[in-house]
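User: Hello! I'm new to structural biology and keep hearing that structure can be predicted from sequence alone. Could you demonstrate with Metallophosphoesterase? Please show me the input and the output so I can see what each looks like.

Assistant: Of course. The first part below is the input, the amino acid sequence of Metallophosphoesterase. The second part is the output, the predicted structure written as tokens.
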Amino acid sequence: MAAIRLVHVSDTHLSDTHGYFAANWAAFRDAMAAAPPDLLVHGGDLSFNGPAAEGDLAFGAAELARLGVAWRAIAGNHDVGEAPDFSRLDQPVNAARLAAWRRHVGPHWWSQDLGDWRLVGLDTALMGSGLAEEAAQAAFLAETLAGRQGRPVMVFVHMPPFDRDVTDAGPSTSVMPHRARGAFLDACAAGGVKVIACGHLHVYRRMRHRGMAIVWAPPTAMVDVRRWQGRLRRFPRPGYVEWTLDGPSATHRLVEPPRMFVIDMSGWTATHGGTTTTLPPLAPL
């Protein structure tokens, strides 16, 4: 069987009313047209401000369809909100926001077999939420891993499981809540998961944990140059991750298209004390 190309793109923040990142998305769209993958997985934050503007979800879903390739997607905090105890943007996930995602984009959790691999998508906004959907998603993950029939598994989540210290129990909006993290990682480590693919923090990064590769996809939208230059000692750039699945092996490469602009909105957020969701409207070019 021929090797399978899988593209993982994340944090696109698309909108027809706040088109700050439209040029980078256009560059991504051109890259997909030039070399269509076998499957594209969007890793969350499809929309600019889906919890407040359902039209952003509709626009993002239409843009995915416009690519003309097979795709799956998982939700991010800018799509459905955040677990109530960790709602930095004061947009707690709720029934209405979950329903809007399902209406325009698709399910909150899913699995798909591709070649020798089983792919699993989960919604990290549900983790630590206390909603009924949190338990249903955990049960789905357990069942899906138990029924994998020896397949290696790649799990897609929006938030990384942790940053530097897996035992850090401090409150955070950057990684999975501690009270949900342990059970998730235990299930993955025992269930044949070889790769955890995530995004959310707008930088490319690799690490290993308990035999699993954890790969952070960069955004196509904004980056925080000062933050990640200081921490990782490299210049963060927009892009995406391309995976090659060849039998039971999986390798990846970082793709940073030269036509993608480095957009840093940290000056705005620092000056206005808000987030990018407080930016004024800007029509896409």
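User: So the tokens describe the shape?

Assistant: Right, they're a compact way of writing down the 3D structure. Reading them back into a model, for example: Helices lie at 22-34, 54-66, 77-80, 95-104, 132-146, 178-190, 225-232, 266-272.
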